């Protein structure tokens, strides 16, 4: 099959290319950007496009998939229920794929599995996990401050939130920071 | 107001693309409106609309800031053939918010300085008629109001759609695209028009509202299956977002909104730029036109059936360069849920408009 790989991380694209070539495919690798995508799809006629899901240029590919004649379309719509799991995994790993009409999704599964493993090696899960932890911490702090305000100011939940919002605005800081101040004061 | 101190709810994951009109979600989070509903919301920033669609289809996110036409496109077969991968909405995130920007060379070529929109469009038509090569216009997605506004602009100018080319460029690349000459004109949401002017890469010639005074734009799209199974949670999420929209309409809140939006975790850009993009539109409103983004007033959160019909017709309109020949998986008048919207408004003590009272004149495509 003709496989077009679009990825902004050159090293990752290279390892994926090697693996796909080993499977006997004809692979073209390109960094994302500007108009090249239109020309590449037209000249290379890929059966499958594997693309870094986080690239803003994916929306340009959407255009190609709506308007070209022999157009790889988003794989998401082809899969039936048993294929969903591998597609879900691929999207979680940051891999997205477009395939031409008539190609069986199960033929693409093995390709996706290869891409998933290459992408997972490079995935930066740490940042996401940290953000989730921060948000949980924020929520706990705000909840605690709300409770303290309700107790000390003898007000209801809505008034407690309104008071914190007003303080956050006056000081131009995040709600969680005001909540911490409230805890420091009353806690 | 519901005063429950029930244990923490399930986490609801909401995706958004970093744009000014994602503000209702970011404000609902930062100002604590979600927390007041006792909701645990995680906001997922996505760098493109395709990711929003894919993740919502597979249930990796539950709801999303979404281009209104994308909700309808998910009900067309092919490419979609699974009801469970389709979307619905019960709430619009406001009217308008886009602008049209010309490249500097084309602006000079058309002598656009000081001219009215119709004078500029007449010059554009003359230019296109005389030119051998096609001009290129930038939109953000095939299924977007941006595409529709570009088609309305062409219609108003009397230019045949085959005389120009519409290319899809993601918002974050729009300023570079017009500076590098890849597009001659674009339609994009804020802050990217203001950014193009700030960087002297192009000039705004009109707002979307000059082409359609109360145009639909983004909605809160939900995975249809999630919406069916989580009606109560859906209502709470919408209550929080409606309150955030109401909050956003207070001029006094603009500076704080810009600061919250600008932070690294959200739009990650200068709050000065955002404030400029948001306040400019307010000032225009003071001049008597409705050029600003409307987050709440004039029933801006209503999922108008008239908008649903207009958008679903536009997808198949032969004047649309992205028109498809697919078929509806769901009757298009069943994709916007007015009943849930009414319930949300009533529970907040806000008036529910009559479905006939959709403001503005619907333009003909």
From TrEMBL, chain A:
One Gene Ontology MF term: RNA binding
Q: Where is the Response regulatory domain?
A: 2-116
**The UniProt record lists the keyword Phosphoprotein:** yes
Q: Which UniProt keywords apply?
A: Phosphoprotein
Q: Does the keyword Phosphoprotein apply?
A: yes
Q: Which InterPro entries match?
A: ANTAR, CheY-like_superfamily, Sig_transdc_resp-reg_antiterm, Sig_transdc_resp-reg_receiver, WH-like_DNA-bd_sf
Question: Start and end of every ANTAR domain?
Answer: 122-183
Example GO biological process = phosphorelay signal transduction system
Name by which UniProt lists this protein = Response regulator NasT
Q: Which domain of life is it from?
A: Bacteria
Q: Which residues cross the membrane?
A: none
Q: Which Pfam families match?
A: ANTAR
Protein source organism: Reinekea marinisedimentorum
Q: Residues bearing 4-aspartylphosphate? A: 52
TrEMBL record, chain B:
Q: Its domain of life?
A: Bacteria
The record's InterPro entries line, in alphabetical order, gives: NrtA/CpmA_ABC-bd_dom
Q: Which SUPFAM superfamilies match?
A: Periplasmic binding protein-like II (SSF53850)
Query: Which Gene3D superfamilies would you find in this protein's record?
Result: Periplasmic binding protein-like II
Transmembrane stretches, by residue range? none
Subcellular localization, as worded in the UniProt entry: Endomembrane system
Q: What Pfam families does the annotation carry?
A: NMT1_2
Q: What keywords appear on the UniProt entry?
A: ATP-binding, Cell inner membrane, Cell membrane, Membrane, Nucleotide-binding, Transport
- Keyword field contains ATP-binding: yes
What cellular component GO annotations does this protein have? endomembrane system
Which molecular function terms from Gene Ontology are attached? ATP binding
What name does the UniProt record give this protein?
Answer: NitT/TauT family transport system ATP-binding protein/nitrate/nitrite transport system substrate-binding protein
Organism lineage reads as:
Bacteria, Pseudomonadati, Pseudomonadota, Gammaproteobacteria, Oceanospirillales
């Amino acid at each position: 099959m003709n496989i077009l790989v679009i990825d902004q991380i050159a090293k990752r694209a290279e390892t994926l290319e090697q693996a796909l070539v080993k499977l006997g495919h004809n692979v073209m690798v390109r960094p994302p950007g500007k108009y090249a995508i239109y020309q590449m799809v037209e000249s290379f006629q890929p059966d499958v496009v594997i693309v870094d899901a986080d690239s803003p240029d994916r929306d340009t590919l959407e255009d190609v998939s709506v308007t070209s004649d022999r157009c790889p379309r988003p794989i998401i719509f082809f899969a039936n229920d048993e294929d969903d799991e591998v597609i879900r995994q691929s999207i979680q790993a940051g891999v997205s794929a477009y395939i031409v009409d008539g190609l069986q999704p199960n033929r693409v599964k093995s390709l996706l599995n290869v891409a998933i493993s290459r992408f997972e090696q490079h995935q930066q899960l740490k940042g996401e996990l940290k953000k989730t932890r921060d948000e949980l911490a924020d929520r706990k702090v705000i909840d605690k401050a709300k409770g303290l305000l309700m107790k000390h100011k003898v007000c209801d939940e809505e008034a407690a939130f309104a008071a914190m919002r007003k303080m956050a605005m006056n000081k131009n800081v995040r709600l969680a920071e005001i909540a911490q101040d409230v805890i420091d004061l009353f806690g | 107001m519901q005063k429950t101190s029930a244990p923490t709810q399930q986490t609801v994951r909401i995706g958004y693309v970093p744009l000014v009109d994602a503000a209702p979600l970011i404000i609902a989070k930062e100002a604590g409106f979600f927390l007041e509903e006792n909701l645990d919301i995680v906001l997922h920033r996505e760098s493109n609309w395709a990711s929003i669609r894919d993740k919502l289809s597979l249930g990796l996110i539950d709801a999303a800031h979404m281009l209104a036409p994308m909700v309808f496109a998910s009900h067309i077969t092919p490419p979609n053939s699974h009801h469970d991968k389709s979307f619905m909405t019960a709430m619009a995130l406001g009217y308008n918010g886009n602008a049209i920007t010309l490249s500097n060379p084309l602006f000079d070529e058309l002598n656009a300085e000081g001219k009215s929109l119709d004078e500029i469009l007449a010059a554009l038509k003359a230019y296109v008629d005389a030119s051998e090569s096609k001009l290129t216009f930038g939109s953000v997605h095939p299924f977007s109001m941006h595409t529709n506004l570009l088609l309305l602009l062409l219609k108003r100018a009397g230019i045949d759609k085959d005389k120009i080319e519409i290319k899809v460029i993601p918002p974050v690349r729009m300023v570079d695209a017009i500076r590098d000459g890849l597009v001659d004109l674009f339609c994009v949401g804020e802050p990217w028009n203001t950014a193009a002017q700030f960087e002297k890469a192009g000039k705004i010639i009109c707002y979307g509202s000059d082409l359609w005074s109360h145009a639909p734009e983004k909605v809160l799209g939900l995975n249809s299956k999630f919406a069916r199974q989580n009606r109560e949670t859906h209502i709470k999420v919408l209550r929080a977002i409606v309150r955030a929209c109401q909050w956003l309409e207070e001029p006094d809140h603009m500076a704080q909104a810009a600061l919250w939006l600008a932070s690294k975790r959200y739009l990650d850009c200068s709050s000065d730029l955002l404030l400029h993009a948001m306040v400019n539109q307010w000032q225009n409103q003071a001049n008597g036109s409705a050029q600003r983004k409307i987050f709440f007033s004039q029933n801006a959160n209503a999922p108008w059936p008239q908008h649903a019909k207009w958008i679903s017709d536009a997808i198949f309109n032969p004047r649309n360069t992205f028109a498809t020949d697919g078929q509806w998986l769901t009757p298009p008048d069943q994709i916007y849920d007015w009943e849930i919207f009414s319930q949300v408004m009533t529970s907040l003590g806000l008036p529910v408009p009559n479905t006939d009272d959709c403001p503005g004149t619907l333009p003909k495509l």
